[in-house]
Write a structure and sequence with these properties.
eight-stranded mixed beta sheet; 3 domains; Immunoglobulin-like; 578 residues; 41 strands
Length: 578
């Protein structure tokens, strides 16, 4: 168990009281506590291969509130795979949730999946049920910088079991960067099956046109990439992927690999907002016209407009020919549709080398791109939406306003209070995965464990994450973004660093594999963590390859209010910055 070393007993007592306060909460649910949400007929519908891509159904906040009812359900597809989904009473599946900074996102969710036996007891304080089953569910609001308290974005003790109803009331911070986020279940040991089953959707924090005025009124696409088990379980490797991928629930399935279809007016510029909502896939997206990679303008990564946190509150696009999106990452970029002279056009994910022990991620065509006559936004919309919602979802708002203060402003210039080194490691024969603070003993994650790191609100820390394994890992932290400072030892191990992410704010970053040569240093990424925000309490950091986090590669960090008398609070793996 980690201890907080301080200069006096008085300060120690104050700090311990703060820790206690940070890990307890009122059991009182939010004001919006509705009746149970009834199950919906024919849930978790899937489209056929080769379908035309449409934006997911969308819901928008009004008057500062987005109130949603979800029925969490499951079914089985024709290949025997378990499907999971979040359904609204009127039949919308995994809808896009549009909110404004400062809004309340209120979700009333009922778990309508069949009951299953208890797998683990969860220590108090309880937020919902006290035991985990393989049918338990919760919601994590991935990438949002919201509170880790009960009924908001708490994932350690929040458990909703079969037949139970739970109310979320998530306050979106007023300084939340505008961009693409997402939601999914976050029950320990069972993240992977729910993601492979398709239970996820995206969140759009509105206002990106205020930081990137060129986007005002631009047509937009919401593209959600998920993965699923390959039917008939072929041995992965070469052209055989470890998992199939889907695009807005359209399968690109082995062995046919039939791509979806994206229709775009000739020469039209569109904002493509892509969420890698998969359990394990690493995407490297490229748009090709007649085999030639097309220029893309990246305007946001992981929900933060690029270059926007320096105090100017204006984004700076990044020119690229391909976009690497780690598992759970997001990228938003401008694409120009092909002209009539283009013969073939496609959205492709390039092959990704994930290491000797990694998954098979071969190149695949996600969609063929076809030119189409220009249509109104409402004409392009799914029939399940109203015309007004469809129009809002198919284009960035036309009116650009004044940008607001951004959550991570001037972090690059902030004094650093601590430095830490953490590392990924594995026990492959036993299927065990670890993320460990340097100097500590590797241990599998347990939600009942004490935190591995304790820090104070207001701290600014530089973390280095090393990969000491033979496969890629994708570091993710809850409640926060980090400023990428540097990437080291990629090339010597046979991979290539993407230097475009340096100086950008991410919540998920890839740390590629070590090649196993004992003379080669471990690949690493160094970034700056920002604890200057309002959030205190316990939350987690982990590898977002779901198999890895489910099997132990996750740990807890605790942020406490800084005791008034404390001048330094060194903890495990921490060195006070000089």
């Amino acid at each position: 168990m980690n201890c907080i070393a301080v200069a006096s007993r008085c300060v120690l007592a104050a700090a311990m009281m703060a820790i206690f306060q940070a890990t307890t909460w009122s059991a009182t649910p939010p004001a919006r506590q509705n009746d149970p949400v009834a199950p919906v007929a024919n849930p978790c519908a899937r489209l056929t291969a080769g379908s035309v891509v449409e934006n997911p159904p969308a819901l928008f906040s009004r008057g500062g509130v987005l109130a949603v009812d979800f029925s969490y359900q499951t079914t089985t597809d024709l290949d025997g795979r378990s499907l999971f989904c979040f359904m609204t009473p009127d039949g919308l599946e995994n809808p896009t949730l549009h909110v404004q900074p400062g809004d309340h996102l209120q979700i009333n969710i009922t778990n309508n999946t069949p009951a299953t036996p208890v797998e683990m007891q969860v220590n108090p304080p309880h937020c919902g049920a006290s035991a985990i089953t393989d049918s338990s569910v919760s919601l994590h609001f991935h990438g949002t910088n919201v509170s880790p308290t009960c009924h908001q974005d708490e994932v350690l003790h929040t458990v909703i079991n079969s037949g139970e109803t739970f109310a979320y009331d998530v306050l979106i911070p007023k300084d939340e960067p505008p961009g693409l986020y997402w939601y999914h279940s976050h029950i320990h040991m069972y993240v992977e099956p729910t993601l492979l089953g398709g239970a996820s959707g995206v969140i759009v924090v509105e206002g990106i046109q205020n930081l990137v005025p060129a986007l005002a009124g631009m047509p937009q696409r919401i593209l959600v990439v998920r993965d699923q088990e390959v039917a008939n379980v072929p041995e992965p490797g070469g052209s055989v992927p470890t998992h199939d991928i889907t695009l807005n629930h359209i399968p690109i399935a082995y062995p046919q690999l039939t791509p979806a279809i994206i229709q775009i007016p000739s020469g039209e510029r569109q904002l493509w907002r892509v969420s890698n909502s998969s359990a394990s896939e690493i995407l490297d997206l490229q748009v090709r016209y007649d085999g030639t990679p097309q220029p893309l303008q990246i305007v946001a990564l992981d929900g933060v407009p690029t270059g926007s946190q320096d105090g100017t509150r204006q984004g700076t696009p990044i020119n690229a020919k391909h976009v690497l999106i780690p598992t759970a990452g997001r990228a938003e970029f401008i694409v120009q549709g092909p002209t009539a002279s283009v013969g073939t056009a496609a959205l492709v994910t390039l092959a990704v080398d994930t290491g000797p022990d990694g998954d098979s991620d071969p190149e695949r065509t996600l969609a063929t791109i076809q030119t189409a006559a220009a249509q109104t936004a409402s004409a392009r919309a799914p029939s399940a939406q109203t015309a007004s919602s469809a129009a809002a979802d198919n284009a960035v708002p036309a009116q650009a306003g004044a940008p607001w203060k951004q959550r991570f402003e001037k972090l690059a210039e902030a004094p650093v209070t601590a430095q830490r080194t953490l590392y990924f490691s594995e026990n492959n024969p036993l299927g065990q995965f670890f993320i460990t603070v340097e100097g500590a003993t590797p241990r599998l994650f347990n939600p009942n464990d004490p935190p591995s790191i304790v820090t104070t609100q207001g701290a600014v820390e530089d973390w280095t994450i090393e990969n000491r394994t033979l496969e890629n890992h994708e570091f993710h932290t809850h409640q926060n973004h980090f400023l990428v400072l540097s990437q080291a030892n990629f090339e010597v191990n046979g991979t290539r660093a993407d230097h475009r992410i340096e100086g950008q704010f991410l919540d998920t970053v890839q740390v590629p594999y070590w090649d196993g040569n004992p003379t080669h240093p471990f690949p690493s990424v160094t970034f700056r963590m920002d604890f200057r925000g309002l959030d205190i309490g316990d939350f987690v950091y982990h590898c977002h390859i779901a198999e890895h986090e489910d099997n132990g590669m996750m740990s807890i960090i605790r942020v406490i209010p800084a005791p008034a008398a404390a001048t330094s609070t060194p903890t495990a793996g921490r060195r006070t910055a000089r």
